[in-house]
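Quick question, first post here. What does this chain look like in 3D?
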Amino acid sequence: MNVISRLTVALLAGLLLSGCGQAGDSTDGTDGPAADAPEPGEAQTSAGKPGAPVDFDYAIIGTPVVGQPVSINLRVSSSLRDRPVTLNYRINDARNLRFPEAQAQRVALPAFGDTGRVTEQITVVPQQEGRLYLNVYAEVETGEGTLMKSMAIPIQVGRAPRQPETNGEPRQDADGETVISLPAEETTR
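> Answer (accepted):
Ran it through. Tokens below.
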């Protein structure tokens, strides 16, 4: 075993052992649970990137029809009632869905105040049948910087079922199971 391999194994073993502790060990030097450990039944959060303290709820008004404007009531709530929230609306493919000229695609909501909830109405015009999506992004400034949250609102237009996109080709494997074959692509340099 070469020197680099030995060092790598020793480092990994050290990391694994440092993560293992005895029951009752804590980071504050006491035998009880750490002071910042959640109580049983309490929600735990990831130490990763924090999400925006914003929630969405929506209602599609009426029946979406190709070529006809359809309105969506978007209810936005925030636990940071004293902070403004900026909403951004986006359509990925204008062949499926479009905004009428009068529809703003970016809206700045003032601080929510006592209500903690605001309703915005968005209008879109479906261009074809099927399941179409309106993307909504919310931004809020916090002490940790700008936090964002996003949601895709599905809009079912007509009776046409959503056409799933399949990558590859369904085939039977040696055990008779259906699998999707993804052939390798040839690249040139």
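Residues 20-47 have pLDDT under 50 and may be disordered.
The first strand starts at residue 54 and ends at 61.
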